[in-house]
Amino acid sequence: MIRLSDQYGRITALLRSKRKKLKSLLALPLLLSFIVISCEEDPAHIGGDILPGSDFDNIAAVDTFRIDLYTQYSESAISMIPRVSYLGQTLDPYFGLTEADFVAQLRLGLAWPGTGISGIDSVELSLDIVDVVGDMGEGIGLNLYEVDEYLSKDSAYMTNRDVPVKDLMQVAGIPGLEEGADTVLSIPLSKTFGNYLLRDTSKLFIRNDTADFRTFFNGLYFEIVSLEEDRSFMLELDVYSPNTRIVVYYRDADNRQMQYHFTIPVVMEGVEYSVVYNRFSHDYTRADPDKEIKYINEPVKDTLAYAQSKNGVYTSLAIPGLENFRSEMPVAVNKARLYIPVYLDQEDYTEDMVPENLLVRYDSAGIKRIIPDYELDPAFLDGVYSKVNNRYEINIASFVQQYLEGDIAEPVIEIFLPERSSNNLIMKANRGADEGVRFELTYTYFE
Fold it and tell me: CB burial class (10 A; 0-12, 13-18, 19+) of residue 153?
């Protein structure tokens, strides 16, 4: 196979030898098209057959190149003010065990009426469940811990951090919910829990210039407890819903029946939000031995690559050959598209388990950013699963253009799934020309 660098140099020389002709034909821009798919060529010898046509007005080239896909995983990721939080655990034959829980800072639902307390009648925790994924069944418990640190909106909280807690405040039972349930779950709590929250009513205020309720009671750590290790389910909660709250029913000094609310307020302009962060842990050794992901964070090519929701594994790939064009600018990228084939085993990973969408990001000075094509228009990025072709198509023209112009450092992207995705992704990787990942590039070269 002829090296891309050799052939690209040949074409450049030929183009420059016909400079006058090209200048007179700028109305007919040169179009070069590359189709890039997986093969077993050494990365240092990336190349292709670039053959000129009958003249130099239009040059088309097709070849196969290596795009190596590697499965990556980072335990540390920032939980960015999640709208949805999770409770549960899922067990997958390919991805092993995933566990999820969360921490929330409570706020006051209303001003304290100042009428005193003669007794607590009951306490109720309400959770706005927007979805149930998997078989929840019965026998599920919920542990509530008081957090032993001040939760600051100016701090970054990682999804794998250990939560410093005080004593366990409550162990509550959760009724079983059917898969797909959308409901408000009501969980009775003990009177002791209510007495503890209201033990000093002088602290029931919120102010930014002094210690307030957020310092008096830092927040709650919600942890699910299942009686069976192989139970696989996930509760999705709208934590900012007005239906997610704690209500203490009490009698005031005049023995009148009263109630007091603690909430997690929605993010709104002019209203300071509560601190909430999600926690995820992944144990890939819990997968089936014959389906377990073999290489994570290793420079070893596998025939499969993976992407997982809840800050799990993702796939990294480098687009070869683009560095050759940087020295030949200006180049206008007309089309840059990735074709990602999906692996199906028709047993534990079938078509109905494939995520509807995937996302693409890149590393910018240590910060993960969505590629600019998505920011311009999510519909243009595409990334939608095609059942007909059993693949994803991803447009990355803006990313490639910005790389060629030097605004992006490396032609490396990462395929990942949004946190809320209920399904995981298995891709065909590092295979031959018939099954591999394809990259198609069309551009105009201006002499």
Answer: exposed
pLDDT of residue 336: 87
Q: Up-side HSE of residue 277: CA atoms within 13 Å toward CB?
A: 22
Q: What does the pLDDT read at residue 443?
A: 79
Round the CA-based radius of gyration of the chain to a whole number and report it: 28
Give the dihedral sign, CA 102/105/107/112.
positive
Q: What's the rounded Cα separation, in Å, for the pair 427 and 308?
A: 11
Q: Is 327 left (phi over 0), alpha (psi -120 to 50) or beta?
A: alpha
Q: Alpha-carbon distance 401 to 395, whole Å?
A: 12
> What gap in Å lies between CA 239 and CA 128, rounded to an integer?
7
Residue 177: HSE in the Cβ half-sphere, 13 Å Cα cutoff: 26
Phi, psi values for residue 216, rounded to 5°: -65, -40
Instruction: Give CA–CA dist 247/252, Å, rounded.
Output: 15
Query: What's residue 269's pLDDT?
Result: 53
pLDDT digits (tens, 9 = 90+) for 119-170: 999 999 999 999 999 888 888 899 999 999 999 888 889 889 899 999 899 9
- pLDDT under 70 in the chain at which residues? 1-66, 227, 266-272, 432-434, 447
33 touches 61 (CB < 8 A): yes
The CA distance from 101 to 271, in Å, is: 26
CA 352-358-410 angle, 5° bins: 150
Sign of CA dihedral 318, 319, 320, 322: negative
Bridge partners (DSSP) of residue 223 are: 143
Q: Which two tokens stand for residue 372?
A: 């600019």
Measured between alpha carbons, how far is 369 from 380 in angstroms, rounded to an integer?
Answer: 17
Q: Quick check: 342 and 333 in contact, CB under 8 A?
A: no
Instruction: Count Cβ atoms below 10 Å from residue 58 Cβ, excluding itself.
Output: 14
Q: CA-to-CA distance for 217 and 148, rounded, in angstroms? A: 9
Beta pairing class for 84-92 and 233-238 = antiparallel
SS3 assignment, position 56: coil
Give the distance from CA 158 to its chain's centroid: 14
Percent of the chain with pLDDT over 90: 46
Tell me which DSSP letter residue 203 carries.
G
| pLDDT number for residue 335 | 86
Amino acid occupying residue 42: D
The torsion region of residue 379 among left (phi > 0), alpha (psi -120 to 50) and beta comes to: alpha
